């Protein structure tokens, strides 16, 4: 098998995915890349600014890359601070990856989409995969457009692009940056370090979420599935669990009864309110056997167990 390149390997998902792919395929098979080297990577690492076509092509040719995971993007909340810049960055990096892949014999591309593609036109509960997409953020607009481009490259050039619509991803291994669902990671860090948490969403804002272990398992399963079982070349809905800040705080308080939370909603509330509350992922389940392992209780138990080890080390 040819080598795998991860663009945006230093991000929340990339950090964990890179290590998992190394375990699956061997350290030498995987090339991590990002704008900066945060020093955490063993094995191959290359500096790549994904807006630079030549640089991606250089690395793809140097390592004879056959699979690319394109994880670099500006997320929902940060994206609203610079709408045109976000569109430029999210679209340019995708076009670069698709074109480099098409012209350099890359066989498979993974493109992460998001629940941010959904807007006011969808049913909020069990939102179906084939829904009308009218996203409320530039990030969501870029992902909805990206899904169409993924399908276009598959249909026009036969490039095997696969995609998942991630809900908010919760993990202990890395921190999210600039998203609307970031609170669901921050809250655990505050609880375990024993401080108060001020939430930027209202208490009852229910959103779809997934534990990192499940998100990574789904990603690798999708990429390993036989091509004939991939029935959508837009993007698969992916679900794990759904909860509100009030509900997650109550679960945390079972372990930390003194944990306190208050609510100071900011501009991210409007984004969250435009998103579904739960997701129907039955196509992923029937097409390539997806099934989440973690619910709210088991996710919270593992997050607390893992973060405790980290915070004890820093005491
Ligand atoms: C965000 O909050 O922007 C992301 C996402 C749901 O895509 N975590």
Automatic annotation (TrEMBL):
InterPro entries cross-referenced by the UniProt entry: Epimerase_deHydtase, NAD(P)-bd_dom_sf, NAD(P)_epim/dehydratase
Q: Where is the NAD-dependent epimerase/dehydratase domain?
A: 4-238
In terms of superkingdom, the source organism counts as: Bacteria
The protein's matches in PANTHER family, at most eight in alphabetical order, are given as: L-THREONINE 3-DEHYDROGENASE, L-THREONINE 3-DEHYDROGENASE, MITOCHONDRIAL
Family to which this protein belongs: Belongs to the NAD(P)-dependent epimerase/dehydratase family.
Q: What is this protein called?
A: NAD-dependent epimerase/dehydratase family protein
Q: What is the lineage of its organism?
A: Bacteria, Pseudomonadati, Bacteroidota, Cytophagia, Cytophagales
